[in-house]
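Moderator note: this is an archived Q&A kept for reference. The question asked for a predicted structure of one protein chain; the sequence and the answer are reproduced below.
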Amino acid sequence: MSTKEIPFGPIQMLVIGADHARFTGEILPEFKRLSDAGFVRLVDLLFVAKTDGEIDAVQASELSADEAQQFGALAGALIGIGATGDEEGALEGAIVGAAELEDGHVFDEADVWYLADAIPEGGWAAVALIEHRWAIPLRDAIVAAGGVALADEWLHPADLIAVGAHLTDRYAS
């Protein structure tokens, strides 16, 4: 399967949370703006809040039922190829993956409880699978030019601070 046949862009798993229930209403409108512009798409979201010992969970996705099953089949096929190295493994993985996303979600009830156990009373956490739609043409152009990704990392401000601290320690002695 060539990358031009893969209808999905790179998927990022983003996990965020807070130990308090303060919502300012800034996250969803910004995500909607990016989604409406075609830059990103929400593959799956699991939001869990813990208040007075009660667990509230919300799931959302921008994928249609058919797209969710197609995503599950593709992910399953790739896992199957990795597990067996052959076409049979890919087919078995595709069947299992499509069935797994029949309900339209990657995350399930076990994930709700896992998140709930990880957040303090009055806190919340969200796990989102975000498809980077903007990267599809770039990926295809790289492949068409015979290129391959040698590394793929995100650098955050904290990473740069850590590099600076490392350099200071290294050259201070």
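Archived answer notes: The longest helix spans residues 65-84.
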